[in-house]
Amino acid sequence: MILTGPEIAAAAARDGRLAISPFEPGQVNPNSYNVRLGPTLLTYTTAIIDAHQPNPTATVEIGEDGYILQPGELYLGHTLEQVGSDTFVPLLFGRSSVGRLGLFVEITAPIGDIGFHGQWTLMLSPIRPLRVYAGMKIGQIMFFVSTGDIDLYAGKYQAADGPQPSRYWRDAARLGAIAT
Q1: pTM
Q2: First-to-last CA distance in the chain?
Q3: How far is CA 30 from CA 26, 131, 143, 163, in A?
Q4: What are the pLDDT digits (tens) for 42-100?
Q5: Beta pairing class for 75-84 and 117-126
Q6: 39 and 79 Cβ atoms separated by less than 8 Å
Q7: Interior CA angle at 93 toward 159 and 70, to 5°?
Q8: Do residues 178 and 71 make contact, with C-beta atoms less than 8 angstroms apart?
């Protein structure tokens, strides 16, 4: 089951089953909550990204005039809001209005884990040059009711603040240790 807008508002603003900060009632939709783009972007700075190594990044601050995203580049953005729940399964998708501008948001990893709390890293890929602005509504999070025992997330991105580069290399290091 998916939470309706009134249930999202009740869970976030009244009884604490959802943590959304800052919470704005005007961002509640019929069955989702709009999240806004935070002011910081990361880009990888090497021509080849290595899944088994930490990869260097450059930080870009989005100014008042916005920032132009370029096709063929992966941008890691973040939600302005910190979002999490120890009760519900969150899924984040791009807003249809943003998709109609030619911006792919969170295509490969929309699901969050129960127990994650923090700013969500957004994978942004434009098909044409596109000017984006800090604070623009970029995505929407839906919340689903889970069944069964809950094992809270305690992973490598917990309490994320700002965009987070991939830490896949930590998984690869553990897998290498197991294989030897």
Answers
A1: 0.93
A2: 43
A3: 11, 28, 12, 28
A4: 999 999 999 999 999 999 999 999 999 999 999 999 999 999 999 999 999 999 999 99
A5: antiparallel
A6: no
A7: 90
A8: no
Give the C-alpha separation, 20 to 115, whole Å.
13
| Pair 62, 134: CB distance under 8 Å | yes
List the structure tokens of 154. Answer: 């305690």
For residue range 131-150, list pLDDT tens digits in order.
999 999 999 999 999 999 99
| Listed residue (135, 139, 158) closest to 40, CA to CA | 135
* Cα 35 from chain centre: 9
State which amino acid sits at residue 173.
A
- Both tokens assigned to 69: 């995203």
How many degrees, rounded to 5, is the angle at CA 176 between CA 171 and CA 178? 95
- Between CA 29 and CA 141 the distance in angstroms is 10
Q: Which of 38, 132, 22, 118 is nearest to 77 (CA)?
A: 38
Rounded distance between C-alpha atoms, residue 56 and residue 19, angstroms: 32
